[in-house]
Amino acid sequence: QSQTESRAQSQGAASSQLRAAWDPTVSGHRVIQRLLHVEERYMPSMLYITLIQRDPERREELAKWALEVCCECGCDETVFPLSVSLLDRFLSASLSIPVSPYCLAAGCILIASKLTECDNVTADTLCAAAEYSFHPSNLREMERVILATLRWDTAAVTPQDFLPHFLACVEEREDGDRSDSER
Amino acid sequence: LQTPSCEKNTSRSLTQMENYLKGSIIGRGTYGIVYKVTCLKTGKVFALKCHRSPVLRDEDTEQKDATIGVEDATVRELSCLSALRGHPNVIQIHDLFIDGENIAMLMPYAPYTLTVIHNGHGLKVNYDHGKALQVIPLSFVAHFSVQVANALSYMHGRNIIHRDLTPRNVLLTKDLTVKVADMGLARQSSKRMSPNVVTEPYRAPELFGDNSPKDYTCAIDMWSLGVMIADAMEGKVVFAEREKGSGTVSTYDIIVKTLCPRNHVKAPVTSWDIDDVMPNVMECTLVKRIVLQLLTFRENERLLAHELLQDQEWVQAAHMTEEDKNMVIHQIQQQQLRQASKRF
């Protein structure tokens, strides 16, 4: 019983410590604030969001396909969220789905992979994943169209940018817990 | 529902490119060549960075050409530059040309780079010799490092790491304003990148070792900045590999011998006296304090860019008088003359 008591006590101490850990000068609070601010730059347009909410299946289908391809190719965890962000921003700017939507999704994966991985996905792999519904040359052209449409501003902020900072806060908290129970 | 075409874009860019007259080569980077170009309409001078096409870089051309498309280096650099657009110490892009497989960036022309700090003399030469030699004033060392730190603090706050900070990539305008150029890109989240980043003498100790992909942080840029300050003080590349006794001592060995703490697993058997490696740095209390905080062997102990900018003493030392500026510019021009005469 005394054990549970002490644990309850240490938890109480930890929650008071959590507040201390969120001190903006100590934790990554400042960085998180800035990332939130930068993230706004890479948001899809309001009009696009309104349109997509009326008929969300098409986007969902493309996003699911992108997730499958990223998993099959063993892409880095950042590639998928970045490619969906590129997809949304491209569609925000053009407001029309190209003849081959899979070619668009593949182009987004290709760019996201080039941005974040040292061994990037090849165009051939992506063509194969789409069951050769488009040629590598189509994909290359699509890549350029996406880059030109987004004015090369492709390094969007994704959830993965925030995670290390959140995790750092959790680690601080755990350390606090441990030192408390030792006491 | 139409497939957008890039044809139109390409042809427009091509006609624009005809408005520029290609001049001499002013730089060769890892990813391409930089030309000095003149606008035929306005007579203004620019720098044109041509990314080498994959065709030229790879042996099995046709195959690669079909699968690669736009170079990843190009995608990274351009996305990085557009994310940092508007910062006074980061190079800006005026225009972009696409010509077949080649992509060229039009940027402002910066007449100088920080390479002046090597072949130039360190801070103390004038005391050693009887006659007065032109030297780099301390204010310039503080000035460029504060401006580089300014750019780095902005980049690091956006989770972008430069990854190849060397004197060659730190450009200087006519009035000696720093413009950081040639960036790679890594968001912190995409950590496992190849360790072969950063030109060797400016590479942080945690990046040496086997070729396996490594996690690294923005602290690698801070190391490079520390080395550049030390270089400027000594007037040479302090961590360049050198001949000593019977063999060569590599950059990494020099770093370990001079800066690895005794309680570290990699601690060397015999260490070197840091006073011999960078005497001018060690003699000036202020510079010593800054450099030793940047050149810490453990990356988590290294000073961050925004912390360096909070150092009042260093920021105050960065104020350059007109006389200081003229001295540096004169020094750079002398050196450019010497280099030009060597070529002929």
Automatic annotation (TrEMBL), chain B:
The keyword Transmembrane helix does not apply. Coiled coil: none annotated. PANTHER family: MITOGEN-ACTIVATED PROTEIN KINASE. This is Cyclin-dependent kinase 2-like. The gene is LOC115577719. It comes from the Eukaryota. It holds the Pfam family Pkinase. The keyword ATP-binding applies. ATP binds at K49. Residues 20-315 form the Protein kinase domain. SUPFAM superfamilies: Protein kinase-like (PK-like). It comes from Sparus aurata (Gilthead sea bream). Keywords: ATP-binding, Nucleotide-binding. One of its GO terms (molecular function) is protein kinase activity.
